[in-house]
Design goal:
The structure is a single chain. The chain has helices at 6-50, 62-66, 173-177, 218-232, 238-248, and strands spanning 69-75, 80-82, 94-95, 107-108, 111-119, 122-133, 138-146, 152-159, 194-195, 210-211. By secondary structure, it is α+β, with helices and mostly antiparallel strands. A six-stranded antiparallel beta sheet has the order 2-1-5-6-7-8. The chain starts with 5 loop residues before the first helix and ends with a helix.
């Protein structure tokens, strides 16, 4: 066969493709455990930030600090903690109707991991994973409640597709700082926290329940508002919070 023949060229090209495919496949399989481990460490780092045990970007021993955090599984249908060995993937979840699905997630996992920070047997923070649609894509974050299960300690988003400088301002430390100290519920247990249009001032009625809107990012602000209210409500962690409050104040 001539070296410059079409058949020989095709054979060489096919061989190169096969070799490259083997290299890529081998690298993917070999690196997968490392990638999974890095993803787990990043998830734990975000939880530590929400728990107030670390600052964003701070160099920390994630594994050592995470020993202070207890991971529990909760069945959102009952608000009860369930067996730690139960897999969330085994639950099909609940399909949400239009009126129920204010966060735009379509299906809610029935079993979720939540994270507790305790000191001397007393709850300090409860960290709750949240998600909901922004303008462009799903936003994933964590909201931390204080020991009274009402005061918001922090809200952070670790994954989103919002526009930099507009909806992407959910990452802005100044905007995130506004959430600290806000009240999630009123005295009757109704979810009151909300993102408003404009700014919250000392003269704003019920300012303890309100956070500044995002300038030029109405849909993102609405998405944040809806996802927070969804996950703190009856379709989210509401039953869990009710049960935990009863344990503290029977």
């Amino acid at each position: 066969m001539r070296k410059d023949s079409i058949a020989n060229t095709m054979l060489v090209a096919a061989g190169v493709c096969v070799v490259c495919s083997l290299v890529v496949s081998t690298a993917a399989v070999t690196l997968r455990p490392i990638q999974q481990r890095n993803a787990e460490l990043e998830e734990r780092r975000n939880i530590l930030v929400a728990a107030g045990l670390a600052a964003p970007g701070e160099r920390i021993d994630v594994e050592a600090l995470f020993q202070q955090v207890e991971t529990r599984k909760v069945d959102l249908r009952t608000g009860e903690f369930v067996d730690a060995g139960r897999s969330a993937e085994a639950d099909e979840g609940t399909v949400l109707s239009g009126s129920e699905d204010i966060a735009g997630i379509r299906r809610r996992d029935d079993v979720k991991d939540v994270y507790l920070l305790e000191r001397d047997g007393e709850l300090q923070r409860l960290i709750l994973p949240v998600r909901g649609m922004g303008l462009w894509a799903m936003m994933h974050g964590l909201i931390a409640l204080g020991s009274d299960l009402n005061t918001i300690e922090s809200l952070l988003f670790y994954e989103h597709g919002e526009t930099p400088g507009l909806g992407g301002e959910v990452d802005n430390p100044r905007w995130r700082a506004q959430w600290a100290g806000k009240q999630a519920f009123d005295s009757q247990g109704n979810v009151r926290i909300e993102v408003i249009k404009g700014q919250v001032t000392p003269q704003t009625p019920d300012a303890e329940y309100k956070v500044d809107g995002l300038s030029g990012a109405t849909f993102t602000a609405r998405g944040v508002n809806n996802l927070v209210r969804f996950w703190l409500g009856e379709q989210g962690y509401g039953p869990l919070l009710d049960n935990m409050r009863k344990q503290v104040h029977p």
